[in-house]
User: Fold these one by one.
Assistant:
Number 1:
Amino acid sequence: MSIGGSIFKAVLHLLRTSSRMAHAIDQDCLRHIDLYPELYSGRDWRELDRVYTYLKRTLNANQYWRYGYSRIRVVSQEVFERLSQWTRIEGKTYCELGCGIYHPYGICTTMYLNGAKMALAWDLNAAPEQRAAEALHDQLSNCSVSPKDWNWADISDAEWNRRIQSFNITALASGELAAGVHGLPVRHVIADITEPPEGIVGTIDLLSSKLVLEHFMNMEVAAREMFNLMSSGGIAYHHIDLRDHRAYPGQNPDSSPYTYWTFLTEKSYFEKTSKFGGRSNRLRAHEYRRAFENVGFRVLEWDVQRGSLPQDLRPNLLETFSSMADSELAITDIYCVLCKP
């Protein structure tokens, strides 16, 4: 390395000792991929492969990579196992509520491969179609090569392969999402839950969400709409995250000032977080359960996970939360299974 290169590396290392500066540098570096594509065009393939290999390995090791099929497999299996304890997947209409914009078809495709007759991916926002198509292509390729990792319903080999081959794999590889899923009972629904498309109300047999319901600002309305969407006897599984999302690494340049309970002490929390996608409704576990039961859901399972409350939390709690027991405040996650009678 040249003297100039060594100095640059030393200065960069010094700047990155500040978490905020490191965040700014990282964001700027990532933007250069889009802003200056000429940095990569015309390069020797060996140079590009070095970058590609490093990023691929880094992403594959990242459990939060939303386009990666590894995370889809883990979440899908969690959903499948929870629902399967109460009903069969085969022949049912399944819906993932809050599929997100990154890999919208991931989980509903897995449920379709495992026997669902119809699978819906529901979200407020559309997805970048080319990238979503590529992600679905990668997932289906892995489903084909490693069926034992995905086929939890013991679907026959012939039927498993038929369902995979019903996708237009070539179109997906080319980034053509609509062509890749054309004619399949796998559908992307882009709508508010309060304004469902015609023909869906009362038809969903299986419903799931993961880390979604905490973002509904009116949980009573959301619970009622979910109840209306489902068929009689329908089963729903939800994993709800009750933590202050700002405490997660990557949500902010510096997450250290926050704990999982910081938002329970802030009067201006909603104003502060209006620009963040991770804004939570701050509801606690008993409030979710009350919302579900008030609209008619029967609770089949109600499992919670707790964390250790900060020692200085209680004196700083807002009045809304100060009357709650520590055992209630400590709940960070809800894993619940509901039934529409």
Note: Residues 101 and 126 are 6 Å apart (CA to CA).
Number 2:
Amino acid sequence: MYESSKGSVEYALARFQLAETLLVIGERNGSHATLLEASDEYREALKVLSRETHALDWAMVQSGLGGALTQLGNVSHESKYYLEAVECLKAALTVRTRDEFRLDWTVSQTNLANALLSIGLDETGTSHLEQARDAYLTVLEVDFQTAAPEIWGAARAGLGGALQFIGERVGSVELLSEAVSEYRLASGVFQFGRAPRYWARIHINIARTLIALSKLENKVGICFEAISILTPIQSILTPETTPVDWVKLNETLGDALYEVALHVRDVSQARLAASAYNAALHVRRFKRVSFSLSTIRASRRRAVKLIATLRHEQSGSRSAQ
């Protein structure tokens, strides 16, 4: 379908549109192959477009490629994708400047922050996480909430993520509390009725942050709040249609239930935790899912061990009576 116009701007933009569609599908399904195909389509468009002859279109494609490479890194955990994503996005920002193309700048700057955040998640320190936080804050200096609410919401959610992970690593209740506030601002944009999958994703992140807060403050009641947030999301996500989000939902639910079981010594809560981890591992049936499930397997083993411990405690208590 492309051969007759190959080498034209129309051809390049058609490849760009195909790449955008593949990116949405690959991001939803966690498919390495689909995301790789999307990145190839962006690269095909860049063979035609150049900064010198079609600067705005070239920058648009560079920005899209940066987003696809970030998602590739997320499913493969290969840092080379993140590093290339940063280069693509910085290139796009040489054209999409804050003064001349403000809304386009917010998209590329947010994507750059996303790439930096992903690099930071694979590191032990907080350097790239702090760079991501600063990049999100730079975006949010611009008043564009009305003009582009979804981009604004994505930047708010990204800032929440940066604050969450920095807070977890440095043990800061203040940063984790700020993260919850940012996520809740983002959820005002991605409401359930308009964008249920993004609404669900943001609320999973809120729950994860609340679990971290409960550990720092030693307040198990916060985990009950996390469970109440997560429970209705189970009716929205499925392992078939949204496997990545399904895994995150059930892993987070398992973590919250485990913390409750650990603190109140309730074997039924420990069993529910193990069941949640099993539900997350159900995605093994879908070969297109590329991410590692080793952490969840370890969490399930931990929950099973706690079940045995609590049953032993109950048995000992009955014997003593």
Note: The mean pLDDT is 91.
Number 3:
Amino acid sequence: MLTNYQAGRTFLCRPLIFVLVLSSYSCSKSDSSTPPPPPPPPASPPTITAVSPLTPYAGDVITINGTGFNTDISKDTVDLGIIINNVFSTALAVNVRHTRILSATSTRITLATDSQLVVLPAEKVALVLRTPTGSATTAGNVLDFKQNLIFSFSSVDPFSSGCGGTFAGDSIYLTGRGFYQPISVTIDGHPANMTVDQNSTTTARGFLPITYFGVNNPIGCAAIRTLTVRVINGDGKSFVRSNFFWPGPNSQIQSASFDNLAYSLSNGTNALFTIKGYALRSDWYFKLNGHDNGSGANNSVEFNPGISNYPTQYSMAFDLGTLPVPSSSLGTDYNMQFKVGSGSDYGFAGSVFTLYK
């Protein structure tokens, strides 16, 4: 009997244990479930902490540092404008206010402005950055765009020029925009001393020495050349243009005379001939035209003084014995003409002296 009871007891307890296990499993599963995580906080709007360079040229690459930038460049935009009373506005004289994003990370954006950008009147401008999460502006109008270098070349000669172009010995001028000191100027690769006017970015001036081109005695307008003028700013920007140059000075005669109005061969044959002017050249030619008051005969004598080194005054001894002896006591009247260059024509004549026996 004990055996049967124990067996029956054993049989009856096994189902009970199974039920308890199921009940325990069901409760344990219900207790381990967790609530879903909360949604992420909204993305912060962008901030701008630095911009460089602050004095760019149109077309330069500009870098913006900050936070909250979108790494997809198609979702970032940067425009130029001006901050007035703490409000950003694009209503200013910027012909191209949009920029082109080149690259973007969450903290750094590089962009390029249009190469034809002009800010007129010239003033500092601001940037506004827009992303899907908001916008940010620079801390004021921080960008001061430099004007791209461009200029025209001109000169002022001590005398009017019949050949055109710029002469050695001329004052020279550059007029344009975008001169940022210190500048260097070359003409045909040779340094030219020019200085930007004080507090100016539009005008520079200088002087070409008479010997600048190293040509001592150029002859005629055929010597004119087309040469390249190059200006290089202190920041490395440069601009070139061509101009006509005459490699010598614009030589001029202001007066040419003998030391007396009358000479007598009986007193000697020496006369002093003096020329005054500007940058006198070696290719000035003179012609004395004589009219014998007794016989009516005419004669002429041509001579070249042999001037060198471009003086402002030159004197030479002239031998009156090279002239025909007058036929009578009435003497011979002489006038004089001069020209520059052996192939040119003589100008108007002027009376100079009378030669007697």
Note: The first strand starts at residue 47 and ends at 52.
